[in-house]
Amino acid sequence: MSYKQLENAMSISKVLSANDTGETGGHQAGMLIPKTGGVLSFFPLLEKDEKNPRASLKFIDSSNDEWKFMFIYYNNKFFNGTRNEFRLTGMTKFIRQNNLKAGDKIILSCERDGTRTIKHERAKTEETKNVLKLGSSWKVVKI
DNA sequence: AGCCATGCACCG
DNA sequence: CGGTGCATGGCT
Asked: What positions does the domain Restriction endonuclease type II EcoRII N-terminal occupy (predicted)?
């Protein structure tokens, strides 16, 4: 009797930063993966004893297209350098095709059969929605 | 911890 | 030769 059913159909999401989408001029080719929030458990375990280990992952989007991303652990901090972070690279085409901008969200899911899917969520840019004008110079005065 | 930025290698 | 992506350093 085992109780392991947590690894089924999990999904994570990441809000794109300007640098992730390339808007800052950086040629990043992908996005940073936060080390916190349990996000890492979505990805395969990488060999931390070797430098910059990586895993190629296949994702299916909503139109059933297949995408190949590279999950890389830049860990040269434990070798020569200063890096200690995870990245998902090779996403430029996907970002462009869907016209994703900073603030938009990427949702990655993992089905029970191991299939990984990718979705995106447009940021709600209704910035002036809650700026309800109430005639602030008027107020009720009791006499 | 996460985001920004860049030199260089590679490929069209 | 210019765009793209990797790897890496720097800055907040």
From this structure: 10-93
Q: Is the CB of A41 under 7 A from strand C?
A: no
pLDDT digit string, tens, across residues A40-61: 999 999 999 999 999 999 999 9
Cβ of residue A23 lies below 7 Å from strand C:
no
Residue A18 parent element (H or E): helix A18-21
Q: What does the pLDDT read at residue A135?
A: 54
Share of chain A above pLDDT 70, in %: 82
pLDDT band at A107 (very low <50, low <70, confident <90, very high): very high
Distance (Å, whole) CA A118 – CA A62: 7
Structure tokens given for A21: 């989408």
As separate numbers, helices (DSSP H) first and strands (DSSP E) second, chain A gives 2, 7
| Domain ranges for chain A | 10-141
A76 close to A70: Cβ distance less than 8 angstroms: no
A46 CB-to-strand B distance under 7 Å: no
Domain A10-141 has CATH 2.40.330.10: yes
Q: Which residue minimizes Cα–C1' distance to C10?
A: A82
